[in-house]
User: Fold these one by one.
Assistant:
Number 1:
Amino acid sequence: MELLVTRSLYLCALFALSLAAPLQDAAVEDGGSSPAVPDRCAGIEFDAITPDEKGTALFFIGDHLWTGFTGPAQLSNLHFRGLSGAVNAAFRMHNTENPDDHDHIYLFQNDKVYSYFNQNLEEGYPKQIQEDFPGVPTHLDAAVECPKGECVTDSVLFFKGHDVHVYDIATKTVKTKTWSHLPSCKSAFRWLEHYYCFHGHNFTRFHPISGEVTGTYPKDARHYFMSCPNFGHGGDRKPLKCSDVKLEAATTDDGGRKYFFTGRVYLRVDTHRDGFHPFPITRGWKEVNDGVDAVFSYSNRMYLIKGDQVYIYKADAHFTLIEGYPKTVKEELGIEGPVDAAFVCPNQHTVHIIQGNMMRNIDLTATPRVIDRELPLPLSDIDAGLCGENGINLFKGSQFYHYESAMILAAGRIAPQPQAITSAMMGCQD
């Protein structure tokens, strides 16, 4: 299969897979024949949206909810015992520093808050909102979690009108912003590091720190977040087979976020609990608009290599191109481009550059940077390299070669048995 066709199929198929049934089958929705059961395909406005502790999206309206992007509505008190009536706002707590709170689901009703874990109401709840979240107003419109790395600290964004109350989980302090440019959010949803404000039957994607909206919005939620007759976003696409996968770069940043790149899209693969979904590379790294050849992370920075150019981004709450870049590969790394693959192992200061059947090691603490060691490999035409706590994976087509360490890779003269990329790694179809 030609590379261009493979890239195109990969984007479409992975997108279809990430939404699973919502984008594949336009099924008749949610028991709409009964007037007592709401029909989300009728263009309703959700009261609240949140993922549960397992990553399943919950959509609330009145005394009903839907679990996932498809399926029938059910009474919410069958899912959350002790809950009665409509929910104003909901979010899943992200607080890894406190396991007693992490992954708990908080539901808000007027001036009260409920806390659930595994669908069980926590002892002592419901409480007054101020008891758990001092400084947060009552009668909220929406709420959404915002982990550190996407916000400055582990936070919750509470919406009321055009005011956004940013609650710092660790310090229990609130800073209030006014985002008058953003529609009044009646529910909010974080999905695969992206933030969505729902208003009416539409949604608008926004940046969680600035509230900035980029792209053409609003968009109809029925095309993206549910399965409805006559609506869809590439709905007849079949999942990509793992045997057709071809990566072009891979890396894990200092925050533990793992990225796979192919064509003009990238995939976050550490977010598998919430699903797999490709996004344009320009959404994360807006200056890189024609794909990448290699990527590596070092010292809270991400290096994207394309041809003979290197783009270096500061990897904080969002990626920011460092002033003066791009530069040539020769200027930055002391070698001529292009580069087939690159990787840096955790807590190491050497970038391993693969070109053809050669691996060139470059000390990232040295100035100027020059080749520290040059080694032949028993492999060639490597597409991507990734190093983690469990060793090194070198990707070639739909397979990868595993090495326990860079030392074993450097000493090896016979390639190990290749292993196939699996659905568990990136959501393709085995």
Number 2:
Amino acid sequence: MERSASRQSRKKVVAVVGGGLVGALNACFFAKRGFGVELFESREDIRRAKIVKGRSINLALSHRGRQALKHVGLEEKIVAQGIPMHARMIHSLNGKQSPIPYGRKGQYILSVDRANLNKELLTAAETYPNTKMNFDHKLQDWNAETGMMTFVRLDGSKEQVKADLIVGCDGAFSAVRKQFLRRSRFDYSQTYIPHGYMELTMPPINGEFAMKPNYLHIWPRNTFMMIALPNLDKTFTCTLFMPFEDFEKITTGDEVIEFFQKYFPDTIPLIGADTLQRDYFRLPAQAMVSVKCNPYHIGGTCVLMGDAAHAVVPFYGQGMNAGFEDCIVFDEIMDQFNEDFSAVLPEYTRVRVPDDHAIADLAMYNYIEMRAHVNSKWFLFRKYVDNILYFFMPKTIIPLYTMVTFTRTRYHEAVKRWHWQNKVINRGLLLSAVGTVLGGSYLLIKNPPHINELIVSAEKMWDRLVALRTL
């Protein structure tokens, strides 16, 4: 009994595998609870690296991510380092710019720098005395039954570490998840979309932003698009999304300029022809993958979070936010089950899987919306109708984007509500149109116009059309 009591009083050790955004934030969550936390990252410490390897699409921080940061006391600091974006700014082919607000007045998403955010989270995790950071530690293997992990260090030597809970936060190509694949009844799928992405830099002009900074700029071109997000250094990070086959067709600097003159002519003087050609050929287009799996846990010893559990394409701006929300959902379930991992982990899978699968599907859908639907008059009309109804009936009709971005409504519940609202609104619009036609027909029958008046009116209309044609 004494040994059992002693074991109960010992604070468990949590190994967080992956020192990216979700891993570093998770380390803060577990350390705040008093667990012994060991964070393992295969790369060197990015805070000390001269060059941070890799690149990424700029991040858009919204309500879910902010709530998770708030829980560990970091929200205000990170928000202060971001740039508010209140609307999408749509750039048409002729250069016209049209804003589409994200939500009500005062609602916005934040453009944040990934590398800087990662550094802040690592530093915050390190401030807890019960946290140990292990960089240049690549996970080679681990055992779900014993919690024993084997890491390979930079010099080739190996180190074995045992933990009570292994938290896999090591990205879309997770080494932790490989063990899950060896077990029965584990569902896993990955989908590469046919489009790749390439990042370009729009430098400041006379020390100021080249475009209005408080917008997410979008150049929708139906089958492809470009977006631009502002940075604190007054640059814009532009990301071109396009089918790989189209990237491969452009092989020379002249072809780059010709392509941009055809589809993004307003950006050439802002980016600069030389910079555009240099950035285009600096690195090849990168692939985008969507990952789904189920369950997220093995027994009471291992759990997956972030991209390791649900990598999503970037078109809803929810990849980081969903990963951060994983941390806070897990923390809430820890309260519910008194930190009993054997109960917490299955409940986490039950609660989180349908939500993460829903946001993965929404991210796929939103790419079509961003590159094509925003050009549609019907889409813009429906946005207007949704916002009007939301204004008058805020508890009944809530736009999908608002539910996803500015609330913590569960993703799968937001999708269900969205489908229901669409049915109601579309039927309402149809009934209104039918009512208008019937009402107009009734008035015409009740008060028929004189036939000669109709003939005169028709002749006048024809004369006006002929005059317009000859201009």
